[in-house]
Model the fold of this input.
Amino acid sequence: MRRTSVALLSLFALALPALGQADFTRYVALGDSLTAGYQSGGLAGSLSRNSYPALISKQARPGAAFDQPLVSDPGIPAVLELRSLVGPTILPKAGSGTLTNPLGTRPYHNLGVPGANVRDTVATVTGGLHDLVLQSFSPLLRGRSALQQAVQQSPTFTTIWIGNNDVLGAATSGIVIEGVTITPVARFETDLRAIASAIAATGSRMAFGNIPDVTTIPFVTTVPNVVVNPATSLPVLVNGQPVRLIGPNGQLGAGDRVLLTATTELRAGKGIPVALGGTGQPLSNGVVLDAGEIATISARVAAYNNIIATVANERGAALVDVNGVLRQAAISGIPVGGVTYTPAFLTGGVFSYDGVHPTSFGYAYIANVWIQAINARFGSTIPPVDLLPFVFGGASEATPGVLVGDSEAAPGVLVGDSEAAPGVLVGDSEAEPNSGVLVGDDEAYFSFLFTEEAKHSLFTSLNIPENPQPPPPRGRRGGRRR
Done:
């Protein structure tokens, strides 16, 4: 009996990955919606089970518990869906989910809070989805921030991917306002250093993820800035040149971008000259990013990432270059199982229906980027996540990003009533790949409609102001100065 037990223990030990200096005995993850596994505009347990920290935990310590908040379908808020196959409309599902696994007496291991920025991780204890993730309903946990709850667990390893929301609001609201939609660099650094210092004091090893350039996500890059002929799916040419849409300051420039939220205005004819069938009214400021705003946002992302790299180096942590990996994926795609995934909206398979957050496949791919960086820094041999189940449906949660008619389709393929090649959006007839134009339906300027309901649900859950305003000037209001 003893020899059998020893043999079984030996086999079990051989099955576990070598962790080197990376001890995942008590693994905690800090971050925002990207850490929580938020997808298609909502937090739903059927999807967030495949959050990148949960996948890392499964690979590093097979069978070990990793607690994270799980919300029943359709999620909080309800995840977005496509309601039709011809001129699909993006709307939240009906209803709302509930938290199914409150712990009450102890924190979750996954402390990713959708909508949280760096300051929130340090100091915020309630409001929005903080109440759910931080379990503010529990007298034992109430009043403790995500950072405090992480420290409470005496972690042996901590992943930190925070800062996306310090700049995301500027890109998605279409308005750059220092201190409102974009965090000042000095404040970002102060708060990130506070996080690193508190975690280091527990003796935990760390890995930091940098921030993707939010001006390159589908929410920003999908809608063309030129007038497109719905009958041909090609740009309208006048004197051999494309006709740019009308923005708040006149005709858009080549470097200006039109956001997903502009589709409702475009459907109503805004932004399109009268001579080409539109109203001649400009697109609103909140659905356009001009070239100067894009440059400001990209520069701020670079500044944040320099800080993240510096802090990671100072703390001997792993640095995960998510920014670089996603940028390369946009260039060459991600070939898996005969399917090439790209960041293209609806058809690419990497990003979900909100144009901001990954699909389950995208999260699995990102988990492998983290695993690779952790292995390189700490001498561990954590095996990568097998991506094939996410391609062929073996992972039950890996469904968003695939729109299917009455039969199954490979992820990343949007299918109408007939088969389509990957990356081709099909309406009533063939369309140019990734053109975003529905052929055969003259009433629909674009093949999809990102509704006001979808925008409101997404923005509210991520604490993004829908109509951001500059803060009032400091000093006395009215009267004479003394």
